[in-house]
Amino acid sequence: MAQKKSKPRERQIGKKQVEKKPLINPKYKNTFWTVVIILILLIFFIINNTRSVPSHGPYPPNYNSATQPKPDTAIDPRLQMNTGNSK
Length: 87
Fold this sequence. Notes:
The chain is mainly α. Helix content is 25%, strand content 0%. The chain has 1 helix and no strands. It has one helix at 29-50. The protein is rod-shaped and about 115 Å long.
């Protein structure tokens, strides 16, 4: 009788390796990191612009305004910027 030839099976020593499934699909990995970076930058932007900062700080030590030189020339009114502040 003729016997069927079968392929020799490879012996596996130990347990079968389980393939690791990635947390993020590699197809969307770049999109995910782009969104994360934009969100972090947006949070920093909001925090930076919502803090209240004191408008004037203390003068340096040994500062005397009477001894400091005054500006010797005035700025031409045509070159001044109108900031909306009228004092």
